[in-house]
Amino acid sequence: MRFPADPGYDYLFSGASNGIRSWFDLDPYVHFGAHFLSWLASFAPLENQAIALATFVHFTWSLLAVAIFVVLKREGFSRFVSLLSALTLVLCPAASESSLANVGNIKWPLLIFALILVSSNQLQRSPKLSGAYLFLTGITNPLSAVLFLPLLMNFFGRDKTDRKSFLLPTVGLLTSFGIQAITVGSSGLGHGTGGVKVLTPWPGMGLFWWFGLISPTVICISALLLRSLLHIHTKSHLITRVSVVVPALALGSYLYGGIGDRYFIAPMVISWIVSLAFVHELGSRLKRGQFIAISVAALLIFLIPTIKWFNSSWYLTAGPTWSEEVELARMNCSSGPTSVQLNIGGIRNTELPCAYIKHN
């Protein structure tokens, strides 16, 4: 098992060195979720920390996929639509490429579920738990500010007697946003973690990138227009609320990190859920043959970003494994140096003190 080159071993080293204080390290924003999981993984033996962290990351993604299924099912969606929607979280091509075993991207599934939660009736039924979750999401992902839009839509769609239950979720979200804003300022909230931000399409930019950049907004606006034209009405307003917020989310992700696969994850997953719900709603209005044709067309559109454009997740197979690097580092430390270099993902090195390596 290997660490992704970004963020590499930095989070884990901070967790092992600084303990609980590492939970609030800045990237430049507060990135609680990533640092908390890294801190947990730091308790594993040094040679096993890569696989421990990957396990925690994948467990979190899987748990949030289950949560999406549960919320959608309780909102009245069919078991089939709810299951497919949950699977989009882990099957989304942008997530498959950049987020396998990558603790730095744990903020995206947290944001996706938060968006579904604040748009649903579950927010009112479990205000304490929802408030706590929104707070944790807010101190992990600075783009959580987009959650205020569906939250307000949900609030004003309720009777006055039901609006009291929105107090704790609103306080949780406002508090976390205030912490992020005070800690890093407005400039820090508008930037991802390091690296060069690419905002302009480049010559020969492939379908994967164009699809991730444009399709979420196009899909959601189209779904809203067609639902209005066809007078499609459902008991749950969740799909309408998430569709409205996706253009803002896509724009925010673009301004935040530029054209990058990790910044496509949240808008793409939500747009796919919107598509699945919309196609299912059309099923009752169409003949069997028409429904099958539309379903196949939607599937073909979803397959566009899966066209091979890159060696997917190459960073998990490039260079020596982490356990091999740790073994080599221990051998090198025995000759007397104070620190040694360990290879990360075949393209990056991290320097660790020999005292740390011997102790762990």
Describe this structure in words.
- The longest helix has 26 residues, at 49-74.
- This protein has a two-stranded antiparallel ribbon with strand order 1-2.
- The model has no long low-confidence stretch (mean pLDDT 88).
- 61% of the residues lie in helices and 3% in strands.
- The protein has helices at residues 10-18, 32-41, 49-74, 79-91, 93-98, 107-118, 122-125, 127-138, 148-156, 167-189, 207-229, 238-257, 265-283, 288-303, 322-333, 354-359; strands at 339-344, 348-353.
What's the short version?
The protein has 360 residues and is mainly α. The chain is 61% helix and 3% strand. The protein is built from 16 helices and two strands.
Estimated share of beta-strand residues: under 5%
The helical percent reads 55-70%
What Rg is obtained from the alpha carbons, in whole angstroms? Answer: 22 Å
How many beta-strand elements?
2
- Which class do the helix and strand fractions yield? mainly alpha
Q: Major sheet, described briefly? A: 2 strands, antiparallel
What is the averaged pLDDT score? Answer: 88
- Distance between the ends: 18 Å
Tell the overall outline. globular
Query: Spans with pLDDT under 50 lasting ≥5 residues?
Result: none
Strand order of the largest sheet: 1-2
The number of helical segments is 16
User: H/E element string?
Assistant: HHHHHHHHHHHHHHHEEH
Secondary structure: elements and pairs:
Layout: H1 10-18, H2 32-41, H3 49-74, H4 79-91, H5 93-98, H6 107-118, H7 122-125, H8 127-138, H9 148-156, H10 167-189, H11 207-229, H12 238-257, H13 265-283, H14 288-303, H15 322-333, E1 339-344, E2 348-353, H16 354-359
Antiparallel strand pairs: 1-2
Helix pairs in contact: 1-2, 2-3, 3-4, 3-6, 4-13, 6-8, 6-13, 8-10, 9-12, 11-12, 11-13, 12-13, 13-14
